[in-house]
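Q: How would the structure tokens look for this protein?
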Amino acid sequence: MIKGLKICGVSDPKTLDYILNHNFKPTMIGFITNFKKSKRFVEFEKLKDLINIDKKQVNFVSVLVNPDDLILEKIKDLCFDYYQLYDVNPQRTKEIKLKFNIKIITALTISSKDDVMKYKNYSEISDIILFDSKGYDKSESFDHSLLDDVPSELHKMIAGNIQINDISNLKFKDFIVDLSGALEDRNGKKDINKIDKLLNLFEKT
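A: Here is the predicted structure in token form.
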């Protein structure tokens, strides 16, 4: 059974309010915190106001690509439950976790079995291992069968161009599912109708 659901790349109050007040809330919501190339990036002042709300027991995730100390100091008092780290080595990951007393999602970008096996370097440090595509915010796919040998006891998440209709096919998998691009309209904005469809479908799995 799927362990949870994360909606990533939320950047406006209307969408966030809709998700948090839905009958079937996701496990997590992700916010792009320092990757300015992403169309989903949220500037710090806007982010601070955006997430200063009642989270309704949903975990808030700060998505960070190789973050420096400056951004980490700026966001340390915001109401994040996890930092999702891309391109951060194990030692630096450990430093961030200890210094900021925060749960860590280590994001590994996958194109081969060797990429998958890197989870072993983080399994003692990170709370969740995210297996994502090499596309970062471009919603590209990767071969999910590469994960077949990852142990079931590993707390893991999967991303990479997952579509709403894929949820029913993933219902026997033991990971958190992370969607972003599949929930957007042609202009790259989050689509309330698609989010509603996803949350209702997830509740039935």
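The longest helix spans residues 192-204.

The mean pLDDT is 93.

Upvote if useful.
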